[in-house]
Each structure stands twice: as C-alpha cells, then as structure tokens.
Amino acid sequence: MEEDIQLIFETAKESMEASITHLNKELGKISTGKANASTFTEILVSYYGSPTPMNQVANVSIADTRTIVIQPWEKSMLGPIEKAIFEANLGLTPMNDGELVRISIPPLTEDRRKDLAKKVKSEGEDAKVSIRNARRDAMSDIKKAVKDGYPEDAGKSKEDEMDELTKSYINRVDKMVKVKEEDIMHV
After folding, report:
1. Domain boundary among 88, 104, 120
2. Contact 24/127 with Cβ under 8 angstroms?
3. Which end of the chain is more exposed for a tag (fewer CB within 10 A), N or C?
4. Are residues 50 and 96 in the same domain?
5. 100 and 113 belong to one structural domain
6. Burial status of residue 44 (CB atoms within 10 A of its CB: 0-12, 13-18, 19 or more)
7. What are the respective helix, strand and coil percentages of the chain, to the nearest 5?
8. What tens digit of pLDDT does each residue of 55-93 get?
9. Model's pTM, two decimal places?
C-alpha cells in the first residue's frame, strides 16, 4: 500500500516537473527584444524534403544584442532557411547576403511589451492549471487508497504533503513568470 502512495507522488511530481519544463520552453520562445538564438533553433527547415530543426542544418549565433546570425553548413540551405523564418511568422525579416542569414531584432514598443507580458502570464496560468490537474489526480488516488484500506490519518498526512508539493511548484511558476515579465518590461 505504501508503494502505491509513493507511486502516486512520483507520478504527480513527474507531471508537475513536465509542466515546469514546458513553461520554460514556451517562455524561451517569447522575445524580449534582445537577440535569442533559442527562438530559431526549433524552427523546422525543409532539408532535402524533410522538416529538420534549424540547429541541425546551420549554426545559430548571436552577433550582438539585436542581431542573430544563421550560418548554414551548406550554401544551398540559405533559401530554405529564409523561407522557414518567414513561415514561422515571427514578424522578423531575414537578410541573406549569400554567405549567411542575418536577422535584426527591432526594439519592442510599449504596447508590444504589454502584449508579451500578457502572453507570459497566460503561459504561467496554463502551467499552473496543469500542476493543479496533477494534484487533483493524485488527491483522488490517495482518497481511493484510503477507501481501499490505507490508514485515514496517513492519507490525510499524504494529502497535506501533496498540497505542499503543489504550492512549491506553483511558486516556481510564479518566479519564472515574474523574471520573464521583468525581462520584457525592462527597456
């Protein structure tokens, strides 16, 4: 019975950790007005007909705070890289000089910063919902275990433990959102 409870906790923890990982990935995609190579590494480029992540066909680097340089390993990939950036709909215009692709990141307007901050909050809320869903599932499993003979006081103790675990993950989400919002709003 105790192993079942441990399994419930491990499953909930994995799910909550996955929510944090997903949030981190999504926040990384949100531009702060500074050059960020991770924005482009996930873009899929048509490499001889098959969609391939950008970082597998080119070197993505940062030239300065507002410029990203993408240097393909094959010159024939310049066109497909440009096309992929346009299709990703990032609102950025790639400049091809025959050797590499340069992307200038324009400074963010105040309205754009506010929109991005809202998007960050929305991503944070999505992560919190996912964490709370993991908590709900775990709590119902604990209640089921109590009905099946697990001691009631131990069950109550495990529910309190699950609440503490949930609070710690929610706090992590809040901190991540706050840091990203400050980064976006900082001119």
Report:
1. 104
2. no
3. C
4. yes
5. no
6. middle
7. 65, 15, 20
8. 888 998 888 888 889 999 888 888 898 888 888 877 788
9. 0.72
Instruction: Name the one residue in this structure whose structure tokens are 């001691």.
Output: 151
Phi-psi region of 143 (alpha: psi -120 to 50; beta: other; left: phi over 0): alpha
CA distance 119 to 39: 16
Q: What is the pLDDT of residues 83-138, one digit of tens each?
A: 888 888 777 888 888 888 898 888 878 888 888 889 999 999 999 999 999 999 99
**What is the C-alpha separation between 165 and 19, in angstroms, rounded?**
14
Task: Locate 104 and state its tokens.
Answer: 């200038």
Residues 25 and 52 in one domain: no
Count of structural domains, the chain: 2
118 plus 178 within the same structural domain: yes
146 in Cβ contact with 153 (< 8 Å)? no
Domain carrying residue 49? 38-104
